[in-house]
Amino acid sequence: MKEKPKIQHKRLAEFLECQFSIEEENCGVVDEILKMCSFENLSNLEVNTSEKLLTGEGNKTFFRKGEIGDWKNYFTVEMSEKLNRTIEQKFHGSGLKFLYT
């Protein structure tokens, strides 16, 4: 996703059966969506920098570094295995394939 976001975004839209038209692609719709959904944009929105949950925890806690593999600094081996099992159960039969590293 990070290496070729435009290509992967278009593949995701196709999978969800809401492909972009040629006109949308030519007008920069895909690029604008990628910009709006970028880690930099989302992590810097006012709601995510200053607002808090009802528990008092800041929304900014949902954003770490935005780097591939950073999750390994937060998950134990057991947590990772449990997440993998849950993902496999929830997405079973969807046709999606996951590569675990």
TrEMBL record:
Pfam family, one: Sulfotransfer_1
UniProt keywords, alphabetically: Transferase
Residues spanning the membrane: none
Molecular function (Gene Ontology), one example: sulfotransferase activity
Cross-referenced Gene3D superfamilies: P-loop containing nucleotide triphosphate hydrolases
Enzyme class label: transferase
Signal peptide: none
Sulfotransferase domain boundaries: 1-95
InterPro entries in the cross-refs: P-loop_NTPase, Sulfotransferase_dom
EC number(s) reported in the record: 2.8.2.-
Family assignment from sequence similarity: Belongs to the sulfotransferase 1 family.
Protein name: Sulfotransferase
Organism: Solanum tuberosum
